[in-house]
Amino acid sequence: MDFSLSEEHVMIRDAAREFAQNELLPGVIERDEKQHFPKELIKKMGDMGFLGMMAPTEFGGGGMDTISYVLVMEELSKIDASASVIVSVNNSLVNYGLSQYGTQAQKEKYLSQLTTGEKLGAFCLSEPEAGSDATSQKTTAIDKGDHYILNGTKNWITNGGSADYYLVIAQTDKDKKHRGINAFIVEKGWEGFEIGPKEQKLGIRGSDTHSLIFNDVKVPKENRIGEDGFGFKFAMKTLSGGRIGIAAQALGIAAGAYELARDYSKVRKAFGTEICNHQAIAFKLADMDVSIEAARHLVMKAAWDKDQGNNYDISSARAKLYASQVAMDVSVEAVQVHGGNGFVKEYHVERLMRDAKITQIYEGTSEIQKIVISRGLLDSK
Fold first, then answer.
1. Are 56 and 84 in contact (CB under 8 A)?
2. Of residues 108, 118, 363, 367, which has the active-site annotation?
């Protein structure tokens, strides 16, 4: 067992930390308040290589491992989870899905632009009646020979209004249930493809979240990903990796909240001394540290499993389930450590607390993670 980071990993982590402090921190409160999508920062993240970290180098990606990816996700999420979720979706869902299951032509046409940040991607699975129950797709893709006709609505889509390419999951043959589902690449601007109003959200308010409407959208047959009926398996395999990204985001939110609370406790005085000298606060900091370190080990284990070619369905679910709970617990306690100042935007912790909640919901709710874990345990020999 080796718990140390390689020299390359340390360099990547430090580069992400510096970028977060120098580029993301300025204006993060204003972006949250005004729900401003950080378009000007996306190009910079692309230039840093953050938007195509694990994609093959032949298509402009970084060819990095998952450990590198979660290190970057943690550092970015300490400062701005709205920016880090863009990195997560582009890497874990869109780029991964295309690089693993796309055709050579699809990779050359789409992946090579997504890895550099020239174009942005979105993953479209959730619907009004098919969030956690991904098998109940109401969006349909009717086979017309050389093309499909796509109809339906997708909800809560990250990068929904700003993406250029969308991976859309739809039902082709209802009688086949999950074996009748397909995945398609849809381009913004195609006739019949409409973007709904931007969602007004509790947290990650800088993230661009929309509903999408498809009205008789013509999708070429060559834009289907995988064989006919592969869509549900595609979504589940892709989401397993996506959970590692969101677990790392939750870890970053927790670590960022802890660092703010720790530093604040060293300067805020009460009853004649800095509040970190009071056992009530010192013990809170100790509890935060232990839970964050435990979450970090789960996240790293899931990333390691993926890099080693092991089955990471359970380890990614464990990491997301626990890290998201830690993000909530630590961010709430960080607000408490700050007292009245914790309720004020300029101290950042209230935003981290609001951002933490979504990590228990997207890429599969905490309840779904428990289903994944328990099924895996009961099916194992």
1. no
2. 363
Rounded CA-CA distance 105/223 in Å is 10
Q: Give the angle 251-253-256 at the CA atoms, nearest 5°.
A: 105
How many other CB atoms are found less than 10 A from the CB of residue 3? 6
* Angstrom distance (rounded) from CA 16 to CA 204: 19
* DSSP H stretches of helix in the chain: 7-19, 28-34, 39-47, 66-79, 81-88, 96-101, 104-106, 112-114, 231-265, 279-308, 313-338, 349-358, 366-379
Q: Is the pTM of this model over 0.90?
A: yes
Is residue 74 annotated as a catalytic residue, yes or no? no
pLDDT reported for residue 148: 98
Token pair 């004649």 in the structure block, residue: 272
pLDDT digits (tens, 9 = 90+) for 267-320: 999 999 999 999 999 999 999 999 999 999 999 999 999 999 999 999 999 999
d(CA 259, CA 285): 9
